[in-house]
Specification:
The complex is a heterodimer of chains A (338) and B (96). By secondary structure, chain A is of the alpha+beta class. Chain A has helices at residues 12-21, 35-45, 65-75, 82-92, 99-104, 119-123, 137-153, 188-191, 220-234, 254-263, 267-279; strands at 6-9, 52-56, 61-64, 110-116, 175-177, 200-206, 208-213, 248-252, 298-302, 310-315, 322-325. Chain A has two domains: 13-205, no CATH class; 209-315. Helices cover 33% and strands 17% of the residues of chain A. In chain A, helix 4 (82-92) packs across helix 7. Chain A is globular. Chain B is α/β, with parallel strands linked by helices and 96 residues long. Chain B has a domain at 29-91. In chain B, strands 3-2-4 form a three-stranded parallel sheet, sandwiched between helices. The chains are: A alpha+beta (338), B alpha/beta (96). Chains A and B meet through strand 1, helix 1, strand 3, helix 3 and helix 7 of A and strand 1 of B. Strand 1 of chain A pairs antiparallel with strand 1 of chain B.
């Protein structure tokens, strides 16, 4: 049984105007969350409406599957996207996902939703050319659903508990997949302990996102040295609560990937090369400290199309990157799953 | 055709008791000032200087200062107790 308050409007236009007046949207139109649609979304996850996906203690908020389903409908998701949204909400509401800080901060931090595993192709989650931008329904609406949960359920409304000075376009939506077949790299979720045939979501808070453009280097070391310089220019702050669990994400495009594939470099070798250089003693204002506890905290994701020789650096806000498995009724648990 | 839709929120944002401003005293005379240092930038230096000015120019009864253990989480429960039990007014500073 659904628990949310119901209301009736004479038509779609009246609903939409009411949604704007009540602050239920991010500024873009939303789809009415009819009880029938919400039930259909919940059915794809096998979750009861009152299943708790997580809590935000500082806001006295409990997020349920029904909350997530309503906001997924409003975001424009298809029903089959909903298990991915559930995994993203669970990851974000992990204690070290640090919802309160990352959604209330003056810095306007955003969240990247990175999808791995077979479900990427089942849902057409884009991971090739243009995948970080608009034009892909799954990417746009899954990322937006998480943001609407953050806004409507977790109360991160601008001027209320969202205290961002400028905020950020990435707060509308930011979701993409990993191009797992680009080469022979170990996919992100497998590096994080999941089986290749599992589907997962990794949610990474982003303080800033910077392009490490390097069209001159012709070998792995040169590209990685550029990543080191770009990362150290901005730095990654330490934090007592987060300890040594903070991550940086490098979304590496094809023109950089090929140097590593040609030379037979694995992600593990890249992490081993990067970590001591990232964390070495710093020299000054534009060579800042990078607080990464271990080489494994460096998350490398293959994505994007051909053309530009660049890698995007997703600097963390005050959270860990958290990975959660996408669960659907009837899925057979993998024997090698963690 | 009419539309029935569900409320997507966890409750109203406006007007909740927890978001109202506390009543303000007519003066600082006899009050104990609570300060929360969030650890960002020069927040501790700034709040220390502010407290020194207020102690010199008003009849404050004392200062209860809390330094958060991390910028990313609220004060520890023990620090909240010190604030709520020891302070009668507070300054909330923020910034980065």
């Amino acid at each position: 049984m659904l628990h949310a308050r119901r209301e009736e409007w004479p038509d779609a236009d009246a609903f939409l105007e009411a949604a704007y007046e009540r602050g239920w949207t991010d500024g873009l139109p939303v789809v009415p969350a009819t009880p029938e649609r919400v039930e259909a979304f919940l059915a794809t996850s096998g979750l009861a409406p009152d299943t708790v996906l997580g809590v935000v203690p500082t806001r006295e908020v409990t997020v349920t599957a029904e909350h997530a389903a309503i906001n997924s409908v409003m975001a424009g998701c298809r029903p089959e996207y909903f298990p991915v949204v559930v995994a993203a909400v669970r990851a974000h509401l992990d204690e070290h996902g640090n919802c309160h800080s990352t959604t209330g901060t003056l810095s306007g931090a955003a969240h990247a939703v990175i999808v791995n595993g077979p479900i990427r192709d089942e849902l057409d989650v884009a991971y090739g050319a243009g995948c970080l931008g608009p034009g892909f329904r799954a990417n746009a609406t899954i990322g937006r659903a998480l943001r609407l949960v953050i806004r409507n359920v977790c109360r991160a409304v601008p001027g209320f508990l969202d205290r961002a000075t400028f905020s950020w376009p990435l707060r509308y939506s930011f979701c993409f997949g990993e191009d797992e077949a680009a080469g022979d790299w170990t996919p992100l979720h497998v590096q994080r302990g999941y089986a290749p045939d599992q589907s997962t979501v990794t949610v990474h808070s982003i303080m800033r996102m910077v392009s490490a453009w390097d069209s001159s280097s012709r070998d792995p070391e040169g590209v990685l040295d550029t990543l080191v310089a770009e990362t150290r220019y901005h730095g990654i702050a330490g934090d007592a609560f987060l300890g040594d669990g903070v991550n940086v994400v490098y979304v590496m495009g094809r023109e950089h990937q090929r140097f590593f594939f040609d030379a037979g470099w694995s992600k593990e070798r890249m992490q081993a090369y990067l970590w001591p250089r990232l964390t070495a003693a710093t020299a000054g204002f534009h060579d800042r400290r990078v607080n990464l506890g271990h080489p494994e905290n460096i998350l490398i994701v293959a994505a994007g199309g051909a053309g530009m020789a660049e890698t995007w650096v997703l600097f963390p806000h005050l959270a860990w990157a958290v990975t959660r498995v996408v669960e659907r009724p009837g899925d057979v648990p993998s024997e090698t799953a963690r | 055709m009419s539309i029935v839709a569900l409320d997507p929120t966890s409750g109203p944002v406006e007007g909740t008791a927890r978001t109202r401003l506390a009543p303000r005293p007519p003066s600082l005379s006899g009050q104990r000032l609570g300060l929360v240092v969030n650890g960002l930038g020069c927040s501790e230096r700034f709040l220390d200087a502010l407290a020194a000015q207020l102690l010199a120019t008003t009849e404050l009864d004392g200062v209860v200062k809390v330094v958060k253990s991390s910028v990313s989480v609220p004060p520890d429960p023990g620090d909240w107790s010190r604030l709520t039990e020891g302070a009668t007014v507070a300054i909330t500073g923020f910034g980065g």
